[in-house]
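Anyone able to model this chain together with 3-methyl-2-oxobutanoic acid?
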Amino acid sequence: MTTHPPRPVPDRPVHDTPARAKLSLPELAELKRRGQRIAMVTAYDAPSARLAETADVELVLVGDSAAMTMLGHDTTLPVTVDEMLMLTRAVTRGAQRPIIVADLPFGSFQISDEAAIAHAVRFVKEARADAVKLEGAGLMLSRVRAIVGAGVPVMGHIGLTPQSAVQLGGLKAQGRTAQAASRFYQDALALQRAGCFALVVEAVPAAVAAHITEALTIPTIGIGAGAACDGQVLVWHDLLGLSSGRVPRFVKQYADLSGRILEALEAYVADVRAGTFPTTQHTYAISAEELERFESGLPPSRR
Ligand code: KIV
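re: yes, here you go
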């Protein structure tokens, strides 16, 4: 595991952080043109978003993975628009510079173009997201055109699309036959034509993702799609070792925060039980006179 020297995090409450200029979509596109790789991470709360911004990521995704990482569900399907709005609001309070993308949850965009526009607009107006992401191509191309037409930038998502895991045969690699690879290639081009500003490519062979990246003018953001993508995304909990259970093979875990948190919690529990926390350092004093006055007012049996 790679270890990195600790970097100072601005010790300010989130609301005191000076505003930094928001990265624009043309600037993001320029990164691809210059061959400069793009870093994206998921986040679901304000302090995490602040850390992601301090680490200088370009994109923060409020993923519907929150259903699993934050809300304890076993798939991404149950998370609601209201839950995603609350998480997105927290993230946009925590970070100013990165482009913040809210995932449209299952059921919020599939029904009609009108419903898709209405939900996308809520993420911008109520949660201050910069863009939304939606899974799939095919019938969803019309949703992309509709949302972009309404003025909300859209990030596409192809390959392993967890909202369709049942149709795809589970959470497993996609595009491993010539036919499937060429369908994703065509889908990627169609999503670009429909107006997406970037495209997540999940769990497809690196060689296929490389061809897709080469063919597109918009950036590809890979997850389990190899190093040729224009950028990479990882789920917060996977990256930091906060996930319970097995993580996909494409995850690189950069820390073991579960282990560190557990150590801290066990030390706290032990201190509480031993009476070694709190000490005078953690408590407030009262002057001898005030204490005496207080105690003289207590019932005689308590003095
Ligand atoms: O919901 C999510 O976190 C995602 C990423 C894995 C791309 O869609």
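The longest helix spans residues 257-274.
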